[in-house]
Amino acid sequence: MRKYKSSIIVSIVFFGIWEVIARYINAMYILPSPSKILEKIWILKEPLFLVHLPATLLVTFIGLLVSVGLGVSLAVIMNLSEKIQKAIYPIVVVTQTVPITAIAPIFVLWFGYTIWSKIIVTILITFFPITVNVYDGLRSTRREMEELLITYGASKKDIFIKLKIPSALPYFFSALKISVPLSVIGAAISEWLGAQSGLGYFSKRMMTQLDGAAVFAPIVILSFAAIIFVFIINVLENKIVKWRNEV
C-alpha cells in the first residue's frame, strides 16, 4: 500500500480540486462534480452494471484475446524471416494510420449492430502494440547467447523456446499493459459509433439528454475497470517473470 501512497494523495487532491471547481461553476450538464457522478452511478447501478458493463467487457475480452493471438503470431512470423518482416511490417503500421472514427461506421455497415463490428474496431486499436513489442522482445536476445547455445548443440527450436521467449516475456507484458486500456477505449468508441448496449452507447444516449453526470458515469466505470485489469497483469508479470526482479 505504501508504494501507492503518492498516487492516492495526488488522486485525492485532483478530485478535491475538481469538486470545488464543479460546485463553483454550478453547471452540472457541463462539468458534474465527482460526488454527483458517484451519486448517478449509484442511482443507475442496475442498467450500468447488469446490462451495459457486461456488454462492453465482452467486446473488450474477445477483442483483446484475438489481438494477443494475432499480434504474437505476426511477431513470431516476422522474427523467423526478414523478408516476411519487410513485407508485413509496413502493412501493420498502415493499419494505425487509418482514423478509427472514419472506418468504424464501415464495419457497422458490413456487420450491423452486432458484436463483431465492435470487436474488429477493438482489434485494430490493440493488436499493433502487441505485435511491435513482442517482435522487439524476440529480437532483444544477445547474439553471443545464441552462439553459445549453438555451440552446446541447441537447435533453432531450443533457442526460440529457451532464449527468445523468456527475453520477449517482459515486452509481452508491457504490451498487454498498453493494450488493455486501449481495448477498453476501442470497445467504448465502437459503441459510440453504433451499438444497442454498452457503456459507450449509454454515455452517448445520456449526452442527448444533457445529463452530464450520467455521461461521466460510464467513463469512470471504464477507467476503474482498466486500472483493475492493469493491476492484475502486473501481479501476473511479477509471478511469471520472477527472474527480472532478481537481476
From TrEMBL:
Record's keyword terms, sorted: Cell membrane, Membrane, Transmembrane, Transmembrane helix, Transport
UniProt cross-references to SUPFAM superfamilies, sorted A to Z: MetI-like (SSF161098)
Chain coiled-coil ranges: none
Transmembrane helix as UniProt keyword: yes
Transmembrane parts of this sequence: 7-31, 51-76, 88-109, 115-135, 171-193, 213-236
Subcellular location: Cell membrane
Database matches in InterPro entries: MetI-like, MetI-like_sf
Membrane topology, from the record: Multi-pass membrane protein
One Pfam family hit: BPD_transp_1
UniProt domain ABC transmembrane type-1: residue ranges: 53-237
Major place of residence: membrane
Family per similarity comment: Belongs to the binding-protein-dependent transport system permease family.
Protein's recorded name: ABC transporter permease
Organism lineage: Bacteria, Bacillati, Bacillota, Clostridia, Eubacteriales
